[in-house]
Structure prediction request, 317 residues.
Amino acid sequence: MSRKRARVATTKFHKYTQELASSVQRARQAGCLVRDDGVIVDVVSSNLSPKQLALVEEVKQCANNLEAMGGREEYQRASQLNTSLFSTSKWLMGLMGSWGWLEGLKVVDRDGSDSRRDVRILEIGAINTQLLDAAKKTRLRRNNGDFNGGIAAKVERVYRLNVRAIDIRSTDPRIEQSDFFALPNPKDAYDAIVCSMVINCVTSPQDRGKMLTKIFNFLRPGGVCFLTLPRLCLHQSKTMTRAYFEEILTKGVGFEIMKEATKDSPKIAFYVLSRPMNLSPVKCWSDNFGTVRPLKNGKKFRNSFTVILSQAEVERA
Ligand SMILES: C[S@@+](CC[C@H](N)C(=O)[O-])C[C@H]1O[C@@H](n2cnc3c(N)ncnc32)[C@H](O)[C@@H]1O
Prediction:
């Protein structure tokens, strides 16, 4: 697949999934039984009003558009190509290396001595196994510490990482097929959550807010989220600006932005967000977070990205 075809596929997928989600919502409001994927349930067309029939047709058309572009399969193939062009895992491995996390996190044992434990990582929307591979990577170490192998050598992991990778549609047996929204709270909170180019695939602004709040909840205090999204979402939407997105992340959800680790490429914004050690000193609810409002003048915008937070959810976090 060429880069151009991959770009077209991801753009079409986002457009058609948004259209499908809105048409399903409209059809449900009119009393039609429609599944999220656009399949019409138990419909006898003679029982439908003309308005319902039109809405059902609209849903079918949106589902057909999605199928015709190759659906989620084509989208994931395109995303795999995009990922191979900018490696998110390289970026976050570099950062974790600079923090000393790749050798594991220090814990003080009951007797006062130090040991190390694996870094617990959740990768949401994993379409490749780069992080899983890094966690499995091994080397031979001789007892005296050199790497020549030999009889006294033992196999050890290179990085102390414990990675759980999930995707709603898994492309590898090691990637767990799960919806992030359906995961129960973890027994042990995560040290790091990777959410790369996923929030822009979530179709409703409310669910995007829910995703950010749930990530915050799943992290231990001091844990970090590696969040990436297309810059287009921040710069080409009438209802979003970069400053407002950062207000949502900080004052809304409660994250601190690690400015020194956050960066931009020409197309992608790379955020490193940390969950503060204690109650978030920056969190401060504004009713704006619960609504959508135009933030820019003008008519032509290539994107309609926005985020809505639920006050009850962020207050529980
Ligand atoms: C654009 S791809 C990004 C993949 C990869 N993380 C990257 O950086 O290139 C988005 C992925 O997120 C997955 N995804 C979207 N919503 C999800 C959810 N609620 N739970 C788990 N995975 C999700 C999609 O299936 C898709 O594979």
Notes: The radius of gyration is 22 Å. The chain has nine helices and twelve strands. Residues 3-77 form one domain.
